[in-house]
Amino acid sequence: MSPKISAVIITYNEEKNIRRCLASLQGIAEEIVVVDSHSTDRTKEICSQYENVNFISTDWKGFSDTKNYGNDIAKHSWIISLDSDEELSKELKTNIASLELKEENAYEFNRLTNYCGKWIKHCGWYPDIKVRLFNKSITSWEGVVHEKLVYTKSISTELIIGDLNHYSYYTEQEHLDRLKKYAQLSAEEKFKAKKGNENYKIIFSPIFKFISVFFLKLGFLDGITGFKIAKNEAKYNYWKYSILKKLHQTNA
């Protein structure tokens, strides 16, 4: 018999997403830990409708520390980590249910992103492979912006067939707002790490990013949506290096 699984989700004002996420975990996670940073919408109310949800309200600790906090609270060693705007597809859910978990393994999912109502198959966004099922006794999250799992011993990864559906942005403005926040965090992280402040990156990095996403990664096959994604990711690089330059100037 395979060991029981706890799901861990971090939330803040996710009433439009959280029900879909929780519903997809039924029959897979014996327990769902929702770590919420004082939402002011109906997130808590929706979570309370599920008997297996343990809703924890706490101050925001950053992406990695908040996820690690949820892992510590979880009753079971095996963790399935989802963002609130994600759901297990039927195929993925079926394959997880039939899986014999191995302690020396961590399990990867293909993430398929929905952008403003369109599923994105190019732009470097698919397959967006993520480790999302792991044993917490040998893992922890690290990183400020794009957190990643680190392991205390050597492990193998296994890809589980089926998509993790990701409902990323409902409007292009949501995408831009998120990128601005990530640009600030990334620039601060680079500054703390004493990364260089090469002025040429402000000019050339956005250009190369657009070319990479739209042409090299076949974003043009996603049509106008692919163009918007490439354009916005170029803006992200511009914002990131502009902020980094200001940090160097301010602290010179």
Walkthrough of the structure:
This protein has 252 residues and is α/β, with parallel strands linked by helices. It folds into two domains: 5-169, Spore Coat Polysaccharide Biosynthesis Protein SpsA, Chain A; 172-250, no CATH class. The chain has seven helices and eleven strands. The strands form two sheets. Strands 1, 2, 3, 4, 5, 6, 7, 8 and 11 form a nine-stranded mixed beta sheet that branches. Strands 9-10 form a two-stranded antiparallel sheet. A hairpin with a 2-residue loop joins strand 6 (105-115) and strand 7 (118-120). Helix 6 runs antiparallel to helix 7 (223-250). The radius of gyration is 19 Å and the shape is globular. The termini are far apart.
The portion of residues assigned to helices is: 25-40%
- The class by helix and strand makeup works out as alpha/beta
Helical segment count:
7
C-alpha termini separation: 60 Å
What's the domain count?
Answer: 2
**CATH class label of the largest domain:** Alpha Beta
Beta-sheet strand percentage?
25-35%
H/E topology pattern = EHEHEHEEHEEEEEEHHH
Mean pLDDT over all positions:
95
Number of strands: 11
What does the oligomeric state look like here?
Answer: single chain
Radius of gyration: 19 Å
CATH architecture annotation of the largest domain: Alpha-Beta Complex
